[in-house]
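Researcher: Structure for this, please.
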Amino acid sequence: MDKFKEVLRKLGKRYFLDAMSAMALGLFCSLLIGTIVETLGQQLHLDFLVTIGGYAKQMAGPAMAVSIGYALHCQPLVLFSLLAVGHAANSLGGAGGPLAVLIIAILAAEAGSAVVKKTKVDIIVTPLVTICVGVALSAWWAPAIGAAASKVGQVIMWATELQPFFMGMLVSVVVGIALTLPISSAAICAALSLTGLAGGAAVAGCCANMIGFAVLSFRENRWGGLISQGLGTSMLQMGNIVKNPRIWIPPIVASAVTGPLATCVFHMQMNGAAVASGMGTCGLVGQIGVYTGWVNDIAAGAKAAITPMDWIGMALICFILPGVISWAVGLLCRRLGWIRENDLKLEL
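Model: Predicted structure, C-alpha cell format:
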C-alpha cells in the first residue's frame, strides 16, 4: 500500500505539479506576453509591435507543449515533436486550448518517450509516434475538452443576467478562478464578448487572483514573485494550489468582495477589447482595456469625460483592495495553520 501511495505521489508531482507549472510559463511566454505587446502597439499606434504580439500569440500551443515536455525531461526528438502536438491541441481545443494541451502533450510525450532510442531509425520512429499520437488525440479529445471549458463561459453568461451584486460576485470569482487554472480566461472572455459590467467584474476577479497571490506570497517570493504574479500570471501558483488548496482562499475572498464593488459601487465597465476582461493586471492589459473603453464611450457620446472617481475605482478594484484583502485573509489563514511556511514558494 505504501509503494502504491508513493507511485501516486510521484505521478501527481510529475503530471500536476511539474507539468502544470511549466505550462504556465509557456503560456506566459506566448499568449500573455503577445497580448501585452499587441495591446501596447495598438495604444501607441506602432504596427510593428502589433505584428510581434500577433506572432507570439500564435505560438501559444507549441510553447506550452514544449514547456511540458521540458518539465517531463523528454529527449530532444520527443521535445521538438511536441511543437506540432501543442499547435493541434490548442487550435482544436478552443477556449479550453491550454487544458487540452496539458492533457494531450503529457500523453504524447509519454508515447514518444516509450519508443525513443528503441530502434535504429529513431529519428523517424520517435517523431512519428509522438506527433501521430498527439494529433490523433487532439482531433479526438480537444474539441470535447474545449466544450467543457466553455461551460465556464456559460456560467459567466448566466451570471450576467442576474442582479449586479450577485452577477459581480459570481463573474469575479469564476473568471478569477479560470485565470489561475490551466484554461484561458482571456480566450473565454473573448469568445463570449464579455464586456460591459460583466467585463468589469471579470477584470476585478483576475486582479484579485494576480495581485492577491503576489501580495500573499511576498514573504516567500519577494519582489520577483510580486512582479511575476502581479504583472504576469497567478497560474504560477497552480502547482502549489494542488499541494494545498487552502492557499487559494484569500484571493477568492478578495474577488468575491471586489466584484460586487466594481459593478454596484464604481460601475466599472470593460468596453475595450473583450480579451482584456480575462487578463487582469497582466502587463496592465486589463486596465488599458478599461481605459480604452472610457475613450471609446467618450467618442460615442455615451460618456462625458473620465472622472476622478473612475481612476479611484480602478485603483481600488484592480490594485489596492485585492492586496489588502488577500493579505488580511492570508494572515488569518496562516494563524489558523491553513497556510504554512513556503506553501506559496515559487521556483523563480
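Researcher: Any notable elements?
Model: Residues 162-348 form one domain. The chain has two domains: 1-150, 162-348.
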